[in-house]
Amino acid sequence: MATTRRSPRRREVLDVLRAAAGPLGVTETAERIAVHPNTVRFHLDALVAEGLVERRIEEPSGPGRPRTVYAPQPGMDRGGTRGYRLLAQILLSQLASRGPDARTAAMEAGRAWGRFLVDPLPPFQQPTAEEATARLVALLDDLGFDPMPEDSGEGQPPERIRLHHCPFLELAEEYGQLVCTVHLGLMQGALTELRAPLTATGLEPFAEPDSCLARTTAT
């Protein structure tokens, strides 16, 4: 889980602004939490930089100088804990409950995203196997798989691509049959979108202690 940490004092300043009936100045805010105005000013500047608080210039109703006031930005607080891994576990567990259909659905989802994510070729351009493999490797690299094609000889596209990192490692360890199927489908979808003369035929999870192994074959 990814967490955005905010100091207790900064949270207190933000809570005071949210509880106020209107915008507050530095001094007013400092009085409400009983700290020095300079401390409050520091946290207000940080909250403005985070996009959580808006700084305004308030014109006086009579004689006097304009003053700077602060008000919370509308909308939900974007700080705090994220639970994307938990969400993925919920969705994967629901998919796994579909039994034999689960892997088919995972494969189709991967293929659809592979077609969507790969950089397309110009119309009517047919890539060579080497060009298609290079684009596939670039996509896998962008996604965080740390791919390394294995040399198959001069003029031949690699038949194996080692994946030295899994961006979904914990989920793959828990739901490997589905997560790895998504990965294979993603590669197949990308090669289909490229109109490549090869396809991904297999993915061996944890083929080595430090890598998984994807296999490609000419079509």
From TrEMBL:
Residues 57-76 are annotated as: Disordered. Pfam families: HTH_20. InterPro entries: ArsR-like_HTH, WH-like_DNA-bd_sf, WH_DNA-bd_sf. Signal peptide: none annotated. This is Helix-turn-helix domain-containing protein. It comes from Streptomyces carpinensis.
